[in-house]
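Annotated sample (chain length 207).
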Amino acid sequence: MLLSIKSWLFETPSKDCMASYAKSGDNRYLEQLIALYSNDLYHYLVTQSNTHLAYDVSQQTWLKVIEKRHLYQAQTTPKAWLFKLARNTLIDEYRRQQHFVELDENTHLAAQNDKSENDLNSGDLTSGDLTSGDSHIGSSNISFEAFDAALKQLSFVQREAITLQQEGFSLTDIELITQSSLETIKTRLRYAKQNLKRLLGANNEQA
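Output written by the structure step:
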C-alpha cells in the first residue's frame, strides 16, 4: 500500500523526455531536450548550410517543437523526430530564399554551399570504404579539415545521408528524417562513401 502511494506521489522520470514534454508541456522537459540534442542538431544543420543559417534554423526548429509537440508519437525516436522537423524547416527556408538544393535525385532547389556533383556519381565501392564515425581511410590518417572540405563537395542528399549515419541514426531513422525509401538511402550512402574516399585520395597525399 505504501509503495503504491509513493508511486502515485512521485512519478518515475521518463526516459523519453520528448514524450513527457508532448504530454505535459512542462518546460523542464524542453530544457532536457535542448541539453540533449541542441549540439547534434546544429552540427547537422551546419553541414547542410552555413553557420548563420544553421543557427537560425535551429532556433526555428525549437519553436516548432513547442508548436507541434502534440504531434509527437512515443514510438518514434525523439532525436529522429527532432531532426525531421529541422530538415523540413531548412528546406522551407531554402525555398523562401530561392536557393537551390538537390532534395532528391530528380528535384532541385539550390543552396548556398552546395556544388554540383558533376562526375561524382560513378564507380564502385571497395573494401576500404569509409564507415560511420571513421576519421581515416584505410590505414592513412585524414585531417578533419580535409574531411569537412570533401564533405562539402557532395550533393545535399549524399552529404545528408552520411552525416545522419555519423550521428548514429539507423537506416529506419534516416528514412523518417529524409522521407526517402530504404533503397534510396543505401544508394546515397554508397555513393557518398565512395566519393569521399576518392576526393580525400585526390587531395591528401597520405590517403
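Annotation: The longest helix spans residues 27-48.
Annotation: Strands lie at 101-102, 108-109, 136-137, 140-141.
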